Request: fold
Amino acid sequence: MDKELVNRLENEVKEYKAIQTEINKINQSRSSLLSQLGENEMVKKELELQKDGEVYKLVGPVLIKQDLAEANSHVAKRIDYISSELKRLEEIFFRLGKKV
Reply:
């Protein structure tokens, strides 16, 4: 075979492997974010069940009392952040899929 063709094929294989590695990293990150999203959605449901407004937050080895509205706000912000990160990863995933 022609040397130029062999070099071209080797470069294509290297590029393909690099894309596959990136896709695997994205899948791992996506899996982690999905589990975090599920946990935060469960916390949100638990907070909705609270009637008295007493919520405690774990900070290091100590539980600190936190206002219910503040806790709801923090959980909503985390859910928004995680959702936006998932969308960003999906966009990258589809761009890489087109390269393959």
Residues 4 and 10 are 10 Å apart (CA to CA). The beta strands are 54-59, 62-67. The longest strand covers residues 54-59. The two ends are 24 Å apart (CA to CA).
